[in-house]
Write a structure and sequence with these properties.
Structural class of chain B: mainly beta
Number of strands of chain B: 32
Order of helices and strands of chain A: HHEEEHEEEEEEEE
CATH topology of chain A: Porin
Structural class of chain A: mainly beta
Oligomer: heterodimer
Number of helices of chain B: 2
Number of domains of chain A: 1
Strand content of chain A: over 45%
CATH class of the largest domain in chain B: Mainly Beta
Number of strands of chain A: 11
CATH architecture of chain A: Beta Barrel
Number of domains of chain B: 3
Shape of chain A: elongated
Largest sheet of chain B: 6 strands, mixed
Strand order of the largest sheet of chain A: 1-2-3-5-6-9-10-11
Largest interface: A-B, 49 and 42 residues
Helix content of chain A: 10-25%
Largest sheet of chain A: 8 strands, antiparallel, barrel
Radius of gyration of chain A: 23 Å
CATH architecture of the largest domain in chain B: Sandwich
């Protein structure tokens, strides 16, 4: 396994010093189950579901590099279909009730908040642990989530979202607009090396977004894979 | 392959994300969503008298999704498009208990006004409320009436004198005008002897109290009132007069007999009157008067005449009525025909017609009905009032 650190230093740091041959020898088929989860660096993609108040889809991409022993530095992107919270939905209901009261017609509301997360961090793979061939890992990344709050209001069956000022409503940043929010995303998962240099990754992540007036916590179930170099 | 580029990329991504984390692309949006306030008072279309100003406008505070501070702005205009504003105010602090009020400046009368509010959050003005209107009536000014009679310093004998004012001048368009009369024994009018409000009549307006005025120095005043629009004038400056017992004989038009105003008053009388039969009984103390033969029947003797004084259209008319014999107190002339029987054909006193509760004056004197023949002492009693 190649490291960016000098080989002598790696030898000094690892529990079991490896010979130069062992460091460069390619793993055999029999050794796949116990071979490192990655060689040098990797790229992968994942999908799954993301749940806050509602459950939506999520698509992500990830890349990383082994920098020391079992430590990888990682960077990830994730698109989440809808991270709207109960509080945001309640705020929208408040305005819908106002419309209904003042206009004398049935009013409804809905909010959808797609989000895009970019972050970087680290992952520790428990290389010496095997759960049926899967190696567990812990990961944490820090970054920013771009949210786009999309509210919809109807009055008497007609969409009045774009004419709310006509009914005396002024939308605030809690129910409209985009923002970028600091995010921390810890997670746990397992990786398994597949044939050749492919791998599969199954995990759960918590994406905690510091949105306006509240913390939005998104639970991601990820299923993916990638290629290791 | 060296990994440094990946590390560098990861580091750049992380730092960039951190720097970009807390930005927002929501310019000109408040931090919370809110609705326009609801207009509460006055209700749409209320009509105000001019003197009900200044007016207070009240709203129900805005619905909102957060707890940020809210201030309000109000506008009042003469047109529904709010192009001609007559009053506006910003930065109105939100009131407690769910409502906010502001008292606006005096507005011109005879004008319809429109008003609306909007909320402000974080420097962002919200959508305005719907507008409502109210009307301010023309400015009505009533001037105090001029007091006419009793004149200041006058002496009044009538038990229930008539008070008269010259009708007030005014500006604007008042509704029906009335006059409030007040009579008091005090110039401060802290307590009243009598008061009433009567409808205006053309040119002058008069009022006669329904209670007797005390014999005293009295004060009276009056003011104009528009009860429909709740507009009053001030009271005219009070007028003082002396209410004295009896009748001013110098003011009487004598229709039968001489002017007895200057005859010596040598008897004091009390009297009763039964209008059902027209019987006047007069009891006296004082000087003895001589008896003489009755001019129309010398077998009888008479001492003098009863006198009647009655006010017709503000003028006192009097005359010597029944002859009475010595020690005779009561004379009867008929009920409804009392004056016509006493003063047959002499107008207007013979046509005088009084209603129950009305008053007229009586006295006795030495012979006077056919004066100067006969006559004796040419003395008289005091004059008192009796009630029909």
């Amino acid at each position: 396994m190649k490291h960016w650190l000098p080989a002598a230093l790696v030898s000094a740091l690892t529990l079991v010093p490896m010979s130069a041959a062992a460091q460069t020898a390619a793993p055999s088929q029999a050794q796949q189950a116990s071979s490192p989860s990655m060689n040098l660096w990797y790229v992968g993609a994942n999908t799954g579901i993301a749940a806050v108040e509602r459950v939506g889809g999520v698509f992500g991409a990830e890349a990383g590099a082994r920098v020391w022993k079992n430590l990888d530095i990682v960077a990830e992107l994730a698109w989440m279909q809808d991270v709207v919270t109960r509080r945001t939905l309640n705020n929208a209901s408040t305005i819908a009730n106002y419309l209904q009261t003042t206009q004398g017609k049935t009013a409804t509301s809905d909010v959808e908040v797609p989000a895009f997360y970019v972050g970087a961090g680290a992952r520790w793979v428990f290389e010496k642990t095997s759960l049926g061939g899967f190696k567990p890992y812990a990961i944490v990344t820090f970054g920013s989530t771009h949210t786009n709050i999309k509210s919809t209001f109807t009055l008497g069956g007609a969409d009045v979202t774009n004419s709310l000022p006509q009914y005396g409503v002024t939308l605030g940043s809690d129910l409209a607009g985009t923002s970028n929010n600091f995010t921390v995303s810890p997670g746990l998962g397992v990786v398994r090396a597949l044939k050749s240099s492919w791998y599969t990754d199954i995990g759960v992540r918590l994406v905690s977004i510091a949105t306006q007036d509240q913390q939005t916590n998104v639970v991601r179930l990820v299923l993916g894979g990638g290629y290791k170099f | 392959m060296k990994v440094k580029p990946s590390i560098l990329l990861a580091g750049v991504l992380g730092v960039t994300s951190m720097l970009y984390a807390c930005t927002s692309s929501n310019p000109n949006r408040p931090s919370m969503t809110f609705g326009a306030p609801l207009l509460q008072q006055p209700a749409n279309g209320v009509i105000y008298n001019f003197n009900q100003q200044p007016l207070t406008l009240t709203i129900t505070n805005s619905v909102r999704t957060g707890s940020d501070p809210v201030t309000y702005s109000v506008q009042v205009a003469t047109d529904s498009a709010f192009t001609n504003k007559v009053f506006s105010r910003d930065g109105i602090a939100e009131g407690a208990n769910g409502t906010t009020s502001v008292t606006i400046d005096m507005l011109a009368g005879n004008q319809n006004y429109y008003w609306r509010w909007n909320a402000n959050v974080g420097g962002v003005a919200g959508a305005p409320s719907s507008s409502q209107s109210f009307f301010v009536k023309p400015n009505i000014v009533l001037n105090a009436p001029q007091l006419l009679t009793p004149a200041s310093g006058a002496t009044v004998n009538a038990v229930r004198p008539t008070f008269t004012v010259i009708d007030s001048t005014f500006t604007g368009q008042p509704a029906a005008i009335s006059y409030e009369f007040q009579v008091s024994t005090s110039s401060s009018f802290q307590s009243l002897v009598a008061s009433a409000t009567v409808a205006q009549t053309s040119g002058q307006t008069s009022w006669t109290p329904s209670v007797d005025m005390p014999v005293a120095t009295l004060y009276w005043r009056a003011r104009a009132r528009d009860l429909t629009n709740n507009v009053d004038s001030g009271f005219a400056s009070a007028s003082q007069f002396d209410r004295k017992a009896g009748l001013d004989l110098n003011s009487v038009v004598y229709q039968l007999g001489p002017n007895i105003a200057n005859w010596p008053e040598t008897r004091q009388i009390t009297a009763t009157f039964d209008s059902s039969i027209g019987q006047l009984c007069i009891f006296w103390t004082g000087e003895d008067w001589p008896a003489i033969p009755f001019p129309f029947d010398e077998t009888a003797t008479i001492e003098g005449n009863q006198w009647n004084f009655v006010q017709i259209n503000g003028t006192w008319y009097g005359g010597a009525s029944s002859w009475y014999r010595p020690n005779q107190n009561c004379k009867t002339e008929g009920g409804d025909t009392y004056f016509s029987d006493s003063f047959m054909g002499i107008q207007p006193i013979s046509s005088a017609h009084l209603n129950p509760g009305d008053q007229f004056a009586v006295a006795i004197s030495t012979p006077a009905r056919t004066w100067p023949d006969p006559q004796t002492l040419n003395h008289r009693s005091n004059v008192i009032f009796v009630t029909w």
